[in-house]
Amino acid sequence: MGYDTNLGRFRAVVAAALAHLEARRQEVNDLNVFPVADGDTGDNMALTLRAVLAELDRLVEQQRDRTLDEIGRDEIVDAVARAALLGARGNSGVILSQFIRGAAEELASRPGELVDPTLIGSAMARSVDRAYESVRNPAEGTILTVAREMAHRIASELAHMEMPRLDAAAPDEELQNQVIAEILERALEAGQESVRRTPELLPVLADAGVVDAGGYALTIIFAGVVAALRGDEAPEIEHHSAPAPRVTHPEHSSETYRYCTNFAVTGTDLDVAHWREALEELGDSVLVVGDQRTLKVHVHTDDPGAATGLFDGVGEVSHIDIADMHAQVAERSERLSSNGAAPAEQACCGALAVASGAGMRRLFESLGAHVVDGGPTLNPSTYELLAGIHDVPAEQVVVLPNSSNVFMAAERAAELSEKTVVVVPTRSQQAGLTAAVALDPAKTAAEVAEAMEEAIVELRIGAVAPAARDDVHGRFRTGDAVGFVEDEIVAWGDPEETLRTVLGSLGRGTEIITCISGDGAPVPDEQIETMAPDGVELEVREGGQPAYWWLLAAE
After folding, report:
1. How far is Cα 58 from Cα 55, in angstroms, rounded to an integer?
2. Angle in degrees, CA 75, 79, 83, rounded to 5
3. By 3-state DSSP, what share of the chain in percent is helix, strand and coil, each rounded to 5?
4. C-alpha angle 203/208/209, rounded to 5°?
């Protein structure tokens, strides 16, 4: 791993670290209770490493037969540090990005030196400094403590090593890997001891009966690095499982804030301290890291729009990722209460649907879609959609807005999200359900969106709703049934007769009609099942949606 070698060796080490973390990612998630029990520490740290690996892949592609010196150390360090910064999510991801940045800076600051135990010690010390600097009020018993105690162990071991320095004039790759692995394994022993002690330093961990998730994840990452250097199995890392949830009051006050908000800002003359203070007026758990050209921001707040709005006219906001912590905490608690059952492996593509009504939510979920509650007016905000996109366990997402009024907000969320997002122009919930049938998690978002649009291209929709006001033409009064086919009123008056007319209109040239009953529908489902037009199969479902007694779709 000297500077005269190819980038492929660095990539292999990062890939091994990521693979080991991925293998225990859910275990790390379940331990996560500080500062909020939102169960995403493993996810956030893995995403940070993925961003670094993707950047290394890009550099390897450019490298071909050039050495690291020929590419330029500064270019490599800047690229890797920026990738970690922009890929970071959550407290743990941002802190890990600074750990990576510190190590990269130190390794690049030593021209002509091989990466040996002495340089590893310097890199660890600088990494810890960077990580501590990123946190306004660092708490002990966290990843910071574990990293510091690992760095201290390396410093102690260097004083007793037979070979702390290597000869750059005659590097031996096998020997280099061996001595680096040895010093890192000593650090890993200190890290595991530190992880076990974290509940003694942080009461919220002791109350929950867990160790610190971020510190534990750091030891897993180092085990992967040692395995890559030795070309062998990783050192044994003790498993730490989470008991059923008992914590109701996380250490920090973020239990009062809903959204974990992450984004990047690019501009000029950006002042970390200034923006940190401004963000602390909007929430807590504020992290602002970076330099004068690029900042990465993390804040827990109820108003993500106000947080990003601080930078209007100052710089370009991008890489927005927003997680609903209330939903995450509930999901973690439910998972642990269900004997710790892990979720399915992450798919290539998932779907997010906007829906209203408990039954409608169940229908979408039965088709594999995640749901954002649109409320009675089916009108979620851009930031609620961003939080929903985050919760879909896939890096590519199709969004089903299910209302013309939601389409612009969905397009904006797609533009802002770090994920690859495609919006399918569904104008109704019943159209959204038809589209959701085409969800294939193994395909890309673009391929799924194309299949969904093909599924609804010939779909005809209808609805019956109680009139909200008297008709200006005198056809119906407030509370009367009003029937629609597409956007045209085709019937009104008695609910049953109006529904029958709409069914008849939709039934022409149709094989199947789906009828979704809403909240307070005045005709029972079993009676509706007898109203199918001749030659048409009628499926009646319970949607519970407000405002509409029945939503209909003809295929």
Report:
1. 5
2. 175
3. 50, 15, 35
4. 95
Joined tokens for residue 196: 């076990």
Q: Nearest 5°: phi and psi at 78?
A: -60, -40
Q: Which of 433, 424, 455 lies closest to 366 in space, CA to CA?
A: 433
Please choose, from the candidates 322, 448, 432, 306, the residue with its C-alpha nearest in 3D space to the C-alpha of residue 378. Answer: 432
In 163-291, beta strands by DSSP E: 259-267, 283-290
Closest CA to 24 of 14, 12, 32: 32
CA-based torsion, 321, 312, 296, 302: positive or negative = negative
Strand partners for 354: 372
Which amino acid does the sequence have at 86? L
What are the Cα distances from residue 352, in Å, to 46, 127, 431, 541? 23, 38, 14, 21
C-alpha–C-alpha distance, residues 2 and 65, integer Å: 15
Looking up tokens 């102690």, which residue turns up? 156
The predicted model scores a pTM of: 0.70
pLDDT profile of the chain (555 residues), mean per 10? 57 91 90 72 90 86 62 76 86 91 83 78 93 88 95 90 66 79 94 95 88 94 94 87 54 64 90 86 89 90 92 89 80 63 68 94 93 88 88 92 91 88 95 94 94 93 93 92 93 95 91 94 93 91 94 93
CA proximity to 230, closest of 447, 32, 25, 1:
1
Tell me the one-letter amino acid at 472. V
Residue 480 contacts residue 467 (beta carbons within 8 Å): yes
